[in-house]
Each structure stands twice: as structure tokens, then as C-alpha cells.
Design goal:
Order of helices and strands of chain B: HH
Chains: A alpha/beta (191), B mainly alpha (57), C mainly alpha (243), D mainly alpha (215)
Order of helices and strands of chain D: HHHHHHHHH
Mean pLDDT of chain D: 89
Radius of gyration of chain D: 18 Å
Helix content of chain D: over 70%
Low-confidence stretches of chain B: none
Distance between the termini of chain B: 55 Å
Largest interface: B-C, 35 and 40 residues
Number of helices of chain B: 2
Radius of gyration of chain B: 19 Å
Distance between the termini of chain D: 28 Å
Number of strands of chain B: 0
Shape of chain B: rod-shaped
Oligomer: heterotetramer
Strand content of chain D: under 5%
């Protein structure tokens, strides 16, 4: 088994507030980690550290993958004043083979000419998740992917993630809604 | 080198120069401004430190 | 190794204790030097041949403008240390020097303007040094407002340090360019390399006032940094003991 | 190249982002002659001063949104993860802004120069100078806006205005050089030198600042 991520004694603090201390875990390919914790326990910070946006205060993190990370955060990375089609090309997935089927699956196929600002929040979230569905990465980092999604889309997401895990990809995510994926739980609590 | 330049206090206040102008107003206002602004800055910091000290206690 | 050394000796705690011990000595010596030099300069020196008695403002103006520029240099130095070695104390120092710099620049500007009335016949001139001092003043205020607009202090420290360093590159350029643009101001009275252009009897009190004023400003910086440390470390246990 | 295409698309579709500053420039340059007497012969000289100040103001306005929007909607986050050199992305971003805002303003400024002073020489000389200065202004104000990201552009302007003053001095000298018809090329090379230093250094500093914002 190849280890995609190995974290040793990670600590992080913002302005002298300690969020987590001496956190150690490892992530194999084909495995998933579900980060749990109360509000303000540092879930988002941990995911940002893993994706390289933030630097940990202490500890080491070893990354072992070839391609880019697929990171889905709170922010959608969508341009409100552009149409869905333009946004797809900005995300560099307009030519992907599976694009059409996923658009149909999520019910976005009729909305290609609509400006993103005119979509509902859930639709925007689905559009943002297309970047995940058509990803080209070994490591998937998801921060609260289910917020604003209806039950049907959540199921689609779960099936997709299970398939990805079977395809030897690694997944680390935080979610308040439990997802139907076999995942190891990492509990973050305030020190 | 260490002799008083001015003969009386009023001379020192008015500071008449050899060209006849009185420069005392300028010199003394600058002295006043400099000393005052430094003193005020000192005061402001001292009180602020005192206040924050009370808060911490 | 250097990093370890700096971190050991630059903890806010040791700094505060050392500085508290030195403060009264610095304050009283520099105050007496400053007042003595002012007395000497204002009453004992003979009047200037060209400017008359108004030249005595030099003993107040030159120290202030010298300090206002040196303080910026000190800030740039502290910022570099902060960015390279991540020393917290130097970040505090940068933030605490800025308001003191603004005060001294203000003194330099006002005293210069008043000095200008009898000597140039105008209180303001679009002249190289005046403009660059004014810009320095605005920059000090800008630095303060930049730091204060961020609630996240660590971010604010980083941005402040970056801006200080970019500004320090720019200050000599501003000075050169404005000088190139036009100049009316007299050339510097004292430079390091050349023989001073003014009489020794006027020079000694000038040096005295510069040294004394520097000491007073150092005291102000100490107070300001103390306030900064107390504000930023108020949750630490040693601060409670200290107060 | 792909990035260049994307940034162009993003700015082109946001017409208030690029057309807005250009129209403001046109309005300022049109309003200026209304405030002075048309028979005044000194209008030639004050025209250039107004031109520099108008360019300065418009570049401030134009950079207001340069990082803020991408920061708010998360695009910057994705870019920082995807691209190893964020400074390259920033260079391209500023270049696109220059292409859509700086370049048209340079041409318009030359046009106004011809219209007001009716000197073709002046108009032609203005084009390269304006092209370089708009690029420098865009870089410097982007730096200010990166620092004051999410805190409003007033702060950004306040802290970067002092930094562009030397450039204004150079531009003031250029006015004399143009009027006397001498040493024009020297100034052009001076401006080019300033520009090349700024292009090399500022994007790196800006990327440092933006990374700190993303933390």
C-alpha cells in the first residue's frame, strides 16, 4: 500500500489560540479520512495545511502524490457574471469526456447559457462539485461538500466517492452530515 | 564660548537680531511646540500603559 | 544558530525586564543632555551672521528630522529581522516605532515651517526635503492605519513589515527624485564625510541636542513597545505577574 | 498561455471592470478644458499635468477589483494550489489589465493630446510614455490593493500613493523635455528601466502578500 499522506505531530495555532496539537495520522491510497470536530476546532485549517495553503506551526507533513490536489473549499471558485459554459472552460473541464453525463445526472445540462448569479445556491454548489467529479488528482480534499445539496445529489456524491476510492484514490474530508462511505474517523477537539 | 549672549531676560525673549528683526516669537514657539508634543506623547503612553495594566489585573 | 540566539534573547519577557531597568538611566541622562544643549544653544552661542537669532531653531529642528529618518531605518531593520527569523519582538517594535516616527516627523515639519518664515519669508516651499519629510509623515500614518485595519495581528505584522521594506527602498528614491525636481533647502549642516560647515561653538550644542533628543525618543519607543507587548501578550501568565 | 486566455475572458466579460475606467478617463479629460478659459495659451502645459493625474486616478480605480473578486469567490485559492509560481499568475493578471485598460488609455491620451495641443509630434511621443507609465501604475497599485485586500481600496491608495511620487517627478520632467524637444529618448529609457525592475520584483512581493491572505 502506498502512503499518500503522512502527518506527524502536527500543531497549529492562530494568534496564540491552540487549535490542535501533536496530531499524527497517515492516509493510504484507496482509503478515506473523515475529520470530525466542533466548530472552531480547526477542521478547515487542517485541510488548508494539507492542501498547502497554510503552514503548520509545528510538525511534519509528507506528501506522496504526483498530480495536483483536488481541493473543494467553502468558496466555489465560480465567476458570478459568467455563464455556466464559460465557467466550465475556466475550470478546464469543458472538454472532459464524462462532462455531459454528469451534467445530466445533476440536472445542469439545460442551464449552460445561464449566468451563474442566476442559479440557486444548491445549483452553484453542484457546479463547483463538477470540478471534483471530473478531477485528475490522486488526493481529494473536501471541506463540507454536502452543504446545500439535496438528498439525491448527496447520494450521487457518495457513490462517486466510493468509486474513486476503489480506483485507488485517497480522500480526506470534513462533514457534519454523515456520508455513506467507509472512512476512518479523525476526531479534532480543542486542546 | 560660555558667555551669555543676551543681557537681560527680555532680550532673550525678543531675540532681536543684528538685522533688526525680532526672532524670539519663532524660536520660542518652536521650543514650546517641541517640548509640548514630546510631553503629551509621554503622557499618552503612560496613561495607556496604566489603563491596560489595570485591565490585565 | 543565529536564529536560536535571537529567539533566546529577544523574548518579549526578557526585553521588558531589561528595558525597565535601563529606562530611568536613559531618560534622566538624555533629558539633562537635551535641556543642557538647548540652554547652551539658545542662550550661550552667538547669533548666526546670515540668519540672525532665528537660526537657533536648528537645535530643535535638526534632531527631530534626523530622528524621523533614523526611526524609519530602524523600522526597516526590525522588519527584515522579523521576516527572516520570525522574531515576534521585532514585529512589536516595528508597530510601536511607527507612531513615534509620526510624532518626530510632525515636529520636524512644524519647526521647519516656523523656521522658514523669518529665513525664507514663507512657511512652506515646494522643496525637496520638505516634500520628502511630508511623504515620510504620510507613510508613517499609512503604516499605522494598515496595521490597525487588520484584526488578525500576525497577518498585520507580516504586511506591515513588507510595506516598511518596500517603502525603505523607495525613500532614498523619493528624496533623490524630489531633489532633482527642485531645491531651495540649505544643504545638510553636518555630514559624516565632510568637515562641518558651521562653527564648532554652534556644533557642540547641536551634537548635544541630537544625542539628548535621540535618548528621549528611545524612551518613547520603550514606552510604546511596552504598551504593544502588554496589549498583544495580555493572555500570557508572565504578563499578569509583571503587572 | 491558457492562463492568459482565461484572465482575458474574465476581464472582458466584466465590462464595468475595463470599460468603466476608460470612460472615467474620457470624462475627466473632457471635463478638464471646461474648467479653463479656452483662449488661455498655457492650456498645453496644464494639459499634460492633468493627463498624468487622470492616468494615476484611473489606474487606481482600475486595480480596485484586481484581486478582491478572485479572493472572495475562491479562485485565488485554487490558483495558489494549482500553480507553483503565483507570481507568474499575478504578472499575467496585471498584463491583461494593462492590455484592456492601460493600452486604450495610452491611445486615448495621445488622441486628446493631439486634440488639445494639435501637435502630432506630441501625440506620438505620448503613446510610449503613457504605455509605460500605465503599466507601472498598475503594478504599484496592485501591490497596494493586495496589501489592503478585503479592507477597501482607500487604504491601498493611501499606502501606495507615496511610492509613485518619484514617477510623477519624472513625468513632470518629461513635460519640459517634450516642450523643449530634447532628451526625450533618455526619459523613455529611464521609464523603461523603472518598469523592468518593477515587473521583476513586485509580482514576487505581491504573491507573498496574497499567500499570507489565503492562510
Amino acid at each position: 500500500m502506498k502512503k499518500i499522506l503522512v502527518a506527524e505531530n502536527l500543531s497549529y495555532k492562530i494568534n496564540d489560540t491552540k487549535l490542535f496539537q501533536n496530531l499524527s495520522f497517515s492516509l493510504n491510497e484507496g482509503a478515506a479520512i473523515h475529520i470530525l470536530g466542533s466548530n472552531g476546532s480547526g477542521k478547515t485549517s487542517l485541510l488548508k495545511i494539507i492542501s498547502g495553503l497554510t503552514k503548520q506551526t509545528k510538525g511534519e507533513i509528507e506528501k506522496n502524490y504526483n498530480k495536483d490536489i483536488c481541493f473543494i473549499g467553502h468558496k466555489n471558485a465560480l465567476k458570478q457574471y459568467l455563464t455556466v459554459e464559460d465557467n466550465l472552460s475556466l475550470l478546464e473541464i469543458e472538454a472532459h469526456g464524462n462532462l455531459k453525463s454528469f451534467l445530466q445526472l445533476l440536472g445542469l445540462d439545460k442551464l449552460l447559457d445561464v449566468m451563474v448569479a442566476n442559479l440557486s445556491y444548491g445549483q452553484q454548489k453542484k457546479l463547483a462539485l463538477l470540478r471534483l467529479f471530473l478531477n485528475n488528482s490522486d488526493l481529494l480534499v473536501l471541506d463540507e461538500p454536502c452543504v446545500g445539496l439535496d438528498k439525491k445529489s448527496q447520494d450521487i456524491l457518495c457513490t462517486f466517492l466510493s468509486d474513486e476510492l476503489n480506483a485507488k484514490k485517497a480522500l480526506i474530508f470534513s462533514s457534519h452530515i454523515s456520508l455513506d462511505i467507509s472512512a476512518e474517523v479523525l476526531q479534532l477537539d480543542k486542546a | 564660548m560660555f558667555n551669555f549672549k543676551f543681557n537681560s531676560i527680555s532680550d532673550a525673549i525678543f531675540m532681536q537680531s543684528s538685522n533688526g528683526q525680532y526672532h524670539g516669537l519663532y524660536v520660542w514657539s518652536v521650543v514650546l511646540i517641541v517640548l509640548l508634543s514630546i510631553a503629551i506623547t509621554f503622557l499618552v503612553y503612560k496613561t495607556q500603559i496604566k489603563n491596560i495594566g489595570k485591565k490585565i489585573k | 544558530m543565529i536564529k536560536k540566539f535571537i529567539h533566546q534573547f529577544a523574548s518579549p519577557k526578557t526585553y521588558l525586564f531589561q528595558v525597565d531597568r535601563a529606562y530611568p538611566y536613559i531618560f534622566y541622562t538624555s533629558l539633562s543632555i537635551y535641556l543642557g544643549a538647548l540652554f547652551w544653544g539658545l542662550f550661550l552661542t552667538s547669533e548666526d551672521f546670515v540668519q540672525g537669532n532665528s537660526y537657533r531653531i536648528i537645535y530643535l529642528h535638526v534632531p527631530a528630522s534626523f530622528i524621523s529618518q533614523s526611526l524609519y531605518l530602524a523600522m526597516a531593520f526590525a522588519s527584515a529581522i522579523f521576516l527572516i527569523w520570525k522574531v515576534k519582538l521585532s514585529a512589536y517594535l516595528v508597530r510601536s516605532i511607527a507612531p513615534i516616527g509620526a510624532v518626530t516627523t510632525f515636529i520636524a515639519l512644524v519647526s521647519g515651517a516656523i523656521w522658514g518664515i523669518p529665513t525664507w519669508g514663507t512657511w512652506w516651499a515646494w522643496d525637496a526635503r520638505i516634500i520628502s519629510t511630508l511623504i515620510l509623515f504620510i507613510m508613517y500614518l499609512g503604516l499605522i492605519s494598515l496595521h490597525d485595519s487588520f484584526t488578525d495581528n500576525e497577518k498585520a505584522d507580516k504586511f506591515l513589515a513588507i510595506l516598511v521594506i518596500v517603502g525603505s527602498v523607495n525613500i532614498p528614491i523619493i528624496k533623490m527624485s524630489v531633489e532633482w525636481w527642485s531645491t531651495l533647502h540649505q544643504t545638510a549642516s553636518i555630514t559624516v564625510t565632510e568637515k562641518p560647515a558651521i562653527d564648532p561653538s554652534m556644533l557642540y550644542p547641536l551634537f548635544g541636542s541630537i544625542i539628548g533628543f535621540t535618548g528621549i525618543v528611545v524612551c518613547l519607543v520603550i514606552l510604546s513597545s511596552k504598551l504593544q507587548i502588554l496589549k498583544r501578550e495580555k493572555n500570557k501568565s508572565w504578563v499578569k505577574d509583571y503587572v | 498561455m491558457k492562463l492568459l486566455k482565461f484572465e482575458l475572458l474574465k476581464l472582458r466579460k466584466k465590462s464595468r471592470g475595463w470599460l468603466g475606467p476608460i470612460l472615467v478617463f474620457v470624462l475627466i479629460m473632457t471635463a478638464f478644458p471646461l474648467t479653463v478659459e479656452m483662449l488661455n495659451k498655457d492650456i498645453d502645459q496644464s494639459f499634460l499635468s492633468v493627463l498624468w493625474i487622470a492616468t494615476l486616478l484611473v489606474m487606481m480605480l482600475a486595480t480596485e477589483d484586481i484581486f478582491l473578486e478572485d479572493f472572495n469567490d475562491g479562485t485565488l485559492e485554487q490558483m495558489a494550489i494549482k500553480h507553483n509560481s503565483l507570481s507568474g499568475v499575478i504578472t499575467i493578471k496585471i498584463f491583461v489589465y494593462w492590455l484592456l485598460i492601460g493600452l486604450p488609455i495610452s491611445l486615448l491620451g495621445a488622441l486628446y493630446g493631439f486634440g488639445i495641443t494639435s501637435s502630432a509630434d506630441l501625440a506620438i511621443q505620448l503613446i510610449p510614455i503613457l504605455m509605460i507609465t500605465t503599466y507601472i501604475f498598475l503594478n504599484v497599485f496592485s501591490f497596494g490593493n493586495a496589501l489592503s485586500l478585503t479592507k477597501g481600496s482607500i487604504l491601498g491608495i493611501l499606502i501606495t500613493m507615496p511610492l509613485v511620487l518619484p514617477l510623477l517627478v519624472v513625468l513632470g520632467k518629461v513635460v519640459i523635455a517634450i516642450n523643449l524637444g530634447m532628451n526625450f529618448l533618455g526619459f523613455l529609457f529611464l521609464l523603461l528601466g523603472i518598469l523592468s525592475i518593477i515587473i521583476l520584483v513586485l509580482p514576487i512581493i505581491i504573491s507573498f502578500v496574497i499567500k499570507a491572505h489565503l492562510e
